[in-house]
Amino acid sequence: MTVAVETGTWQLDRTASTVALRHKTMWNLVTVKGTFATFAGQGEVRPDGSAVGTISLDVASLDTKNAKRDTHLRGADFFDADNHPEITFAVRSAELRGSDAVHVVGQLTARGVSRPLSFTAALRDASADALTLDVEFSVDREQFGMGWNQLGMIRGLTTVTATLRFTRTAAA
């Protein structure tokens, strides 16, 4: 990535990271916001400066501050957490473009359905031991088998935002 970002293994710092989603409902009158409390991730910066890795989210940890809605979201109409407890994003490549833009290409898997996904993340800071990425992208939940839409209330894309802080794993 940059000269300051060392090759090797990097671990997601869950205490300094956040993953959230938002989706307009009720015919775009209300925005539902939620955060994932439990997630994990790791990556590897290769000698050529590119990176690969994986982020996984625990579906059961999604919290929208409404217990009834959260139960519905975890159920078969949406994430189907009993059968698909994790959402994963496998990073196939991440490459620095310019001074702070990271082009990310990978595979998003939710509810057992995988789709290619690419986006540009912002490299907020980087040092020899830590780096932080700000991420935002949108997905069509229907492409992942989440088509429930009572009375046409839920249309459009879901936006995912994340601040991901990675720390370098000490060499063995």
Share of helical residues: under 10%
Low-confidence stretches: none
User: Nearest-angstrom radius of gyration?
Assistant: 17 Å
Please, what is the average pLDDT? 88
Number of helices: 1
Strand line-up in the sheet with most strands: 1-4-5-7-8-9-10-11
Topology order in helix (H) and strand (E) letters: EEEEEEHEEEEE
Our estimate of the beta-strand percent is: over 45%
Overall geometry = elongated
From the coordinates shown, what is the CATH architecture?
Beta Barrel
Largest sheet: 8 strands, antiparallel, barrel
Structure description:
There is one protein chain. The protein is mostly beta strands and 172 residues long. It has a single domain, classed as Beta Barrel (Lipocalin). The chain contains one helix and eleven strands, in the order ββββββαβββββ. It has an eight-stranded antiparallel beta barrel. β2 and β3 (30-36) form a beta hairpin. It is elongated and about 45 Å long. The relative contact order is 0.23.
What's the quick description here?
This protein is mainly beta and 172 residues long. The protein has a single domain, classed as Lipid/polyisoprenoid-binding, YceI-like (Lipocalin, Beta Barrel), CATH 2.40.128.
List its salient traits.
172 residues, mainly beta, Lipocalin, eight-stranded antiparallel beta barrel, 1 helix
